[in-house]
Amino acid sequence: MAAYQGPQATLRRALQSAFDNKVPETAAEILDAEIPYLDASVEETVRVAGTAGITTRQALVDTEVLGCRIPKGAHLLLNIRIMYPPMDVAENLRSASSQAAQAKRTQGGFDGHPGRDLHLFEPRRWMTKDSGGKEVFDAYALPTLTFGGGLRGCFGRFWLHLSPFVLYKIVFADTSAPCHRKTASDSRVEDYHGSLDHELRVPALAGGSR
What is the distance, to the nearest Å, from the Cα of residue 8 to the centroid of all Cα atoms in its chain? Predict the structure, then answer.
């Protein structure tokens, strides 16, 4: 957030407007407030931070994924970082549930506004307008599997989302977090993420998943 002063300023204005420049007395006041840009900022932070780079799945039966045969017992490594557009996959190779999930993305997913400039921190990719023209948070703007662990998803997801809500209000509502370029753009972090994306994308091409 410190590296992107524009979104930080927008979040500050949204917080100040939501609370009429007053200081909430309890965390409940922050959590109960309807602030779409705050929701979007938290979601974008989770996407860009790379909290989890990959997740694993084991095939319980012989199956097929995007045209590739997967034998029973095989372990799959899934890249869940969304920092670059994905490889093109023919729709007829996708399962019915995959196509149904895409239908929920009214903004077009990767092909629409949410999928532009994925290397940048842009909370507005998670926002849209309702039938009345009001800006609202769109949780389905892009596919995400960051909290895909567990039988029914990660039990810590709710807590992880609650913490930034309160933290962002405390830190950004009345103060500005300056950008220390050496910290915000640490080359070692960039090199790690870059090599991880390369290692996960190239084998997929070699496997003929397109």
Answer: 17
- pLDDT by residue (tens digit) across 11-44? 888 988 888 877 777 778 877 888 899 999 989 9
DSSP for 130-192, written as a single string: -TTS-EEE-TTSS---TT--SBTB-TTHHHHHHHHHHHHHHHHSS------HHHHT-HHHHHH
User: Whose CA is closest to 37, among 128, 149, 115?
Assistant: 128
Contact 139, 125 (CB under 8 A): no
Whether 98 contacts 130, CB under 8 Å = no
**Degrees (nearest 5) of the Cα angle 77, 101, 82?**
45
Tokens coding 137: 């948070």
Look up the domain containing 63 and give its range: 5-206
CA–CA distances in Å: residue 86 to residues 82, 109, 132, 158, 189: 8, 11, 33, 27, 21
- Per the CB < 8 A criterion, the answer to whether 105 and 112 are in contact is yes
Q: What are phi and psi of 207, to 5 degrees?
A: -80, -5
Number of domains in the chain: 1
Among candidates 31, 9, 22, which has minimal Cα distance to 163?
31
Residue that has been written with the tokens 């913490």 in this structure: 163
The pLDDT of residue 200: 38
